[in-house]
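Researcher: Quick sanity check before group meeting.
Model: Go ahead. Protein one:
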Amino acid sequence: MTVAELRIKEWGNSLGVIIPKELVKQHALVKGGTLRVDILQKKPIDGFGMFRGLPKFVRDHDDREEFWQ
């Protein structure tokens, strides 16, 4: 099994991927042959609202009091 990250391209009304030459040779792929594809889509991480319900951030300046006295 080989894992490769490929970019999706548009051809007319269809979508497709280009298989790198090295993978074609490594797996002896031929035109008209069959290929099994497992799709794992990367989802962007959305951190909005992640910390909802937690107490507000309060900056603690206690470590700086000695400089102001």
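Researcher: Fine. The other one?
Model: Protein two, sequence then structure:
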Amino acid sequence: MLFEVPAIHSPTCAAAITSALLAQDLGAAVEVKLSERRVRVEGNLSKDQALAAIRGAGFAAAEAPPHSGAGSTCCGGCA
């Protein structure tokens, strides 16, 4: 799952989000891309559970729209 989190701006923000997600699913793979302000989560959490964890850490979040089409660098892994 891929989420847009506009307020991510530092490693401290990334750590808070990662901790919140791992508290809900210790085995989750969490990748935070500060430059893109996106969070990728792979694991046992549902979309709603992941959003609740991110929001519970104090960050507004929304599911990122699929990105594809001409000129896209999408690998297809998030669709």
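Researcher: One line on it for the slide.
Model: The chain has a mean pLDDT of 89.
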